[in-house]
């Protein structure tokens, strides 16, 4: 099962800093479940957030891309602009720019649960 991870970002560089962006990407890299790609949506940032995410993705083995939107479309508008690009994925995992996955089995646990409970349409980690 393939997961499309969408990270919605807005002025992450100014709010949280370059090191935090690195930690977000590292936490995704550390996941035990590896069948995923990453799409970062820069939701109209006025700083260099999109450039830092691009550099971080290029410096890893992650399959990913950055979409730089010229204006802020809000949470759902930004995520929806990336979700249409996830057609080849079985699941979409929405991740805010201020989240670090501290458990290396987050993705595995979510996929395992969804695969066992086909009547469930959505899950989220706590």
Radius of gyration over C-alpha positions, nearest whole angstrom: 14 Å
**Residue-averaged pLDDT:** 96
Query: Would you tell me the structural class of the helices and strands?
Result: alpha/beta
End-to-end Cα distance, whole Å, is: 21 Å
How many strands in all? Answer: 4
Q: Please give the oligomerization state of what you see.
A: single chain
Uncertain regions spanning at least 5 consecutive residues = none
Largest sheet: 4 strands, parallel
From N to C, what is the helix and strand string? Answer: EHHEHEHEH
The proportion of residues forming helix, as a percent range, comes to 25-40%
Going across the biggest sheet, name each strand in turn.
Answer: 3-2-1-4
Number of helices: 5
Question: Could you say which overall geometry the principal axes of the C-alpha atoms support?
Answer: globular
**Per DSSP, what share of the residues sits in E-state strands of 2 or more residues?**
15-25%
What does the secondary structure layout of this molecule look like, with pairings?
Layout: E1 3-9, H1 12-16, H2 18-29, E2 36-43, H3 49-58, E3 64-69, H4 74-83, E4 91-96, H5 106-116
Parallel strand pairs: 1-2, 1-4, 2-3
Written overview of the protein:
The chain is 38% helix and 21% strand. It has 126 residues and is α/β, with parallel strands linked by helices. A 4-stranded parallel sheet has the order 3-2-1-4, with helices on both faces. The protein is globular, with a radius of gyration of 14 Å.
């Amino acid at each position: 099962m393939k997961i499309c991870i969408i990270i919605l970002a807005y002025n992450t560089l100014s709010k949280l800093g370059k090191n935090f962006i690195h930690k977000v990407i590292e936490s995704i890299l550390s996941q035990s479940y590896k069948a995923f790609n990453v799409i970062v949506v820069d939701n109209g940032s006025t700083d260099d957030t999109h450039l830092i995410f691009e550099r971080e993705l290029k410096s890893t083995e992650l399959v990913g891309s950055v979409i730089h939107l010229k204006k802020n479309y809000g949470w759902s508008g930004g995520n929806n602009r990336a979700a249409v690009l996830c057609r080849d994925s079985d699941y979409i995992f929405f991740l805010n720019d201020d989240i670090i996955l501290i458990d290396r089995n987050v993705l595995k646990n979510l996929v395992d649960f969804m695969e066992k409970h086909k009547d469930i349409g959505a899950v989220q980690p706590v």
